[in-house]
Design brief:
Layout: H1 22-57, E1 73-88, E2 91-99, E3 106-110, H2 115-119, E4 125-131, E5 134-140, E6 143-146, H3 153-181, H4 192-214, H5 218-247, H6 273-277
Antiparallel strand pairs: 1-2, 1-4, 2-3, 4-5, 5-6
């Protein structure tokens, strides 16, 4: 009687590779949310950017023969009635009440801890700077301090935040696409496969924020941001490919014969119980 040999499970062919789509859901969803938030900011930006452009282009009312709609930069004297510093939501609020003389007193909030707020005392005469009926700065002698809400800085900061959200969201979507192409039989992810794209995205975000806060031309800001993203992500792809090739290098080990006089390590090979019994009875 002949006994059939049990097939070795290790000799079976591996299952077909499948794409691991579950790993791409979280980064893809987060990237879509960030891109949507950036789109909402971009929708509200045109008005703020146009206002900032008009403010930068405005001239002094003394240089304009017939100003229209208060588009010129006006200055007029006022007296300080009171000043107050408050602590609200982990930030300091600096309020100054001024009396223009020809109208009721009003309150303005100064930006930051400037020199004007520190030098002001009730009864001092200040110079009020306004544009389109809105106060944007207070002057005391040769000193001047901006008021919170001045046209320009807010629009630039909003543009910087929108670009940063767009770049990070695109990076997450790109990462989700990479994860969707990865198979379940692929080796474990190396550390450099995470920190290289992270460093590239951080560099692209830095370029976007710097250009938004320092360059006044919006098309030029977008061009600089796009160029920064292209350079950073191309360098990331090349570096990732280079490190991947080094991680998969094949090392060939060649056995060497021991010289005479040295003890050799005996070699043995495990045999399966089925093979040691024989096949006939």
């Amino acid at each position: 009687m002949t006994r059939a040999c049990t097939p070795d499970p290790s000799a079976a062919p591996p299952p077909p590779a499948r794409r691991d789509m579950r790993s791409a859901i979280a980064p893809g969803a987060l990237g879509a949310v960030l891109i949507l938030a950036a789109a909402v900011l971009f929708v509200t930006l045109p008005g703020k950017l146009a206002e900032a452009h008009d403010f930068r282009a405005a001239r002094s009312c003394e240089d304009v023969a017939a100003p229209e709609n208060g588009d010129c930069l006006a200055t007029w004297p006022a007296a300080v009635v009171a000043k107050e510093s408050r602590r609200e939501k982990k930030s300091d609020t600096r309020l100054v009440t001024v009396d223009p003389g020809d109208g009721p007193p009003f309150e303005v909030e100064l930006r930051g801890a400037g020199s004007v707020f520190g030098e002001l005392e009730p009864g001092d005469r200040v110079t009020v700077h306004s544009w389109r009926g809105t106060v944007w700065a207070l002057g005391l002698g040769e000193l001047r301090q901006d008021v919170r809400g001045k046209p320009g800085p807010g629009a630039a900061a909003r543009l910087a935040v929108a670009l940063a959200l767009l770049v990070v969201g695109a990076a997450f979507v790109r990462g989700a696409f990479w994860w969707s192409l990865r198979h379940t039989r692929d080796p474990a992810v190396h550390a450099w496969q995470s920190w290289v794209p992270f460093a590239a995205t951080s560099a692209a975000v830095g370029v976007a924020i710097t250009s938004a806060l320092t360059v006044d031309d919006v098309p030029l800001v977008l061009l600089i941001t796009a160029a920064g993203c292209a350079v950073a992500w191309s360098a990331s792809a090349l570096l990732t490919r280079l490190l991947g090739r080094r991680a998969t290098d094949v090392v060939t080990l060649e056995p060497k014969t021991l010289t005479a006089g040295r003890s050799s390590v005996p070699s043995w090979r495990a045999r399966s119980p089925t093979a040691s019994r024989g096949t006939t009875t």
